[in-house]
Amino acid sequence: MTDMMNNKHVRVVVRTRPTTRFASQAIEIIPDKNIVNIHVPKPEDAGFINNQQSDWSFKFDKLLHNVSQDAVYEECGTPIVRSLLDGYNGTLLAYGQTGAGKTFTMTGATENYRHRGMIPRAISQVFKEIQARPQYAYTIRISYLEIYNENMIDLLAPVGQSADMAVVEDKNGCYVKGLSQVIATNEEETLNLLFEGETARSVGDHALNRSSSRSHTVFTIHLESKSRVDSSDDVIFSKLNLVDLAGSERLAKTASSGKTLKEAMFINKSLTFLEQVIIALADKKRDHVPYRQSRLTNVLRDSLGGNCNTLMIANIWGEADHLEETISTLRFATRMSCVTNEPVVNVQYDPMTLVKKQEREIKELRQELAMYDTLIGRSHVQYEPFTDGQKAELAKRVRAWFDGTDDEIEIVTLRQVKEIMNVFKGMYLQWAQGGDRCELPKAGGATGPATAGGMERDISAALEEEDGVGETEGMGFSIGVAPVSGPNGRRKVINKKAPPAAKKEPFVPNAASRQSSTSFVYGSSPAPTTGTTGSGGDDAGHSPGGSPEVQGASRFGDQGAMGPVGIPALQPLPPIPARAKPDRNEEFETFKRGPGKDLAQALIENKRILRDKKRALVDLTARVTTLKASITDLKTAVARDRDQALQADTEHDPALYSAPIPADVQAKLDSLATLKADAKRHLEAVAQTKSELEYAARVVDTCRERLVREFDAWYLQVYCDAPAPAGVGEARPTSVAERRTAAAAAAAAVAGMTTDASVADPLDLAEQFDLMLNDKLMEDPASYSYYAALKRRQRRGAKPQARTLM
Ligand SMILES: Nc1ncnc2c1ncn2[C@@H]1O[C@H](COP(=O)(O)OP(=O)(O)O)[C@@H](O)[C@H]1O
Ligand SMILES: [Mg+2]
């Protein structure tokens, strides 16, 4: 790295303008030690109390006394330009009073090649360095700015096209917005730009009647470099500011009036601010640097201290007349040399190459993960994006999970989770748009919408766990078609309750009971089994199996009142934008007469079956009571006959004991046996009917719950513009107009059906309670847990009631 890099402070080089009138008595130059000593003789009239300082000693990084442009460039230009090519920002400032040689130093005398200054030499070196570094691709842009009386002038702007400029700062550093940055591809082009700018400057001087020494100029070489060979995606941006400052002479010396005074004040201010900035930069304790006080400091804010190489050439004019300015310049230069810089390479990233780099990194990380998985024995983990085929396969598995045919989807990667979420989303959207119902989840009685339906499903599942009866499978429910995954525990309980006589044709609501003739209608049933056995006894009137009402229930199923897959085909109602929601109880009635008609009828039918079972049980119980009474009567009669016979046997005739039983007594005994057998059958029937009754009560509960749930879904859909519940309706209007027409038609149909006694089934207490709970849930879904628990408690409480209704 260059010397420049090793210097942490701003380098200050003092250059003297050659003159034959050098004030050698006052100025002592010690070039070897880079020291300038100044001795100012005290004025003789000042007397002995004159305590003004008269001797100064200044030490700098380099003292260039009467040296050539070559030597100056070698000392100041070469390292800073090399740093520029390495990616470091640089600033080279020429400071000093007017006539001290700043412009000569920076631009040089254009008429003589040997006298060319730092700028043309820097340009030349930049292109030479570029040629020497073919492994990098460079882009060079040039800007040339003049600051005059705090105004910024774009010296490279096409005539009359100077834009508004402002100093802005972003993550790439600070720059002058609106200032031309002209791409230059070779030394000549770049020099042309320099001269073009010089011309523009002199034209401006002439037009404005000003001296070029009254303005600051900043010639900037912007460099962008990128490796051609390295796989690195770094793009390095660097810039070199070559600053020819306005004359630093103090106001007093050029004191005048009008325009000159104004110029002097601006120069004075900007250089004062430059000095303040430099002092602030030199003071490590200060965290605020007042860059914004002047255009100059603002433009150079990222080039005076911090991460760049800064070098100041202090030009002094070593004549006695300019001693004061020389001292002032040297003092300023000394302060400048205290500023510490820590140059860093300005590496930025090209977005495209950055993307490539990150892609490469991702690939490597995936490989690493795959290796890790192999090591720990996980071989099927997928980190690559899912292909369409894999997505379809995953979607299938998700549906299987919904249907309950797949217990679990093993989660292996975040990507897989995201894909699953996408499947859910796709299903939901399809559902919301009324797409193919077959694509929808079918399990868990998923007939409600995603909102309330989800909660209802959970509630339902919880209740089913409690109840152990039936299953809200999409396939509907009927006795004889037990749920595939129905709770076994519950089955056992029912089996225990079944009387021994049930061995013949036991009433067991599980798979073994498929032969049972009892069919409850739960929403619907896939071709419910018709009564075929019913061999509970010869008392067909009391036999559950042979009861005509039960067969009626079967017919109900056979009549095709239910949908083919067991879900009542609710008539679809399209969403209507939220509006005043009518009374839910009234709407429940509407629902039961309209879209929920089949389900309502199923509920009514099941309730009817329940009532009939209760009646049958009452009848059976009464019959048992009658039989028991008859048996008791007969027993009494037989006992009476026996007593009479015993009383008649006063002789204790042994022949009496071997004599045949009198016919009338035998008849009584036969009757007694028959009655006992009949009573036994009836008792068995009572036990079986009790089981059926219990089961019927549960089916009614479940059916009611489903009706309410589907009503909620429907209500949400109609009045809250929620998505249509899955499985509700086969043919669905697509357009809004169609949906509204369908809504109107449904309403009209309902209105016309109000006299339909078949569905006139007022809310019972349980239905009202369910409706109330669902209302609450819709008001505040967060209350789900509370109400689910409440509902469960209510259901628990309701169960014994239902059982004791008999
Ligand atoms: N090192 C030098 N060698 C020869 N001539 C110089 C040198 N420095 C300055 N001059 C001459 O002095 C004059 C004033 O210099 P200039 O660079 O215009 O001063 P400034 O820009 O500081 O006002 C010019 O004519 C210039 O040629
Ligand atoms: Mg000048």
TrEMBL record:
One of its GO terms (molecular function) is ATP binding. SMART domains: KISc (SM00129). Residues 479-567 are annotated as: Disordered. Pfam families: KIF9, Kinesin. ATP binds at residues 96-103. Keywords: ATP-binding, Coiled coil, Microtubule, Motor protein, Nucleotide-binding, Phosphoprotein. The keyword ATP-binding applies. The keyword Nucleotide-binding applies. Residues 523-532 have a biased composition (Low complexity). PROSITE patterns: KINESIN_MOTOR_1, KINESIN_MOTOR_2. InterPro entries: KIF6/9_C, Kinesin-like_fam, Kinesin_motor_CS, Kinesin_motor_dom, Kinesin_motor_dom_sf, P-loop_NTPase. It comes from the Eukaryota. Gene3D superfamilies: Kinesin motor domain. Residues 9-339 form the Kinesin motor domain. GO terms for biological process: microtubule-based movement. Residues 512-522 have a biased composition (Polar residues). One of its GO terms (cellular component) is microtubule. Belongs to the TRAFAC class myosin-kinesin ATPase superfamily. Kinesin family. This is Kinesin-like protein. The lineage of its organism: Eukaryota, Fungi, Fungi incertae sedis, Blastocladiomycota, Blastocladiomycetes.
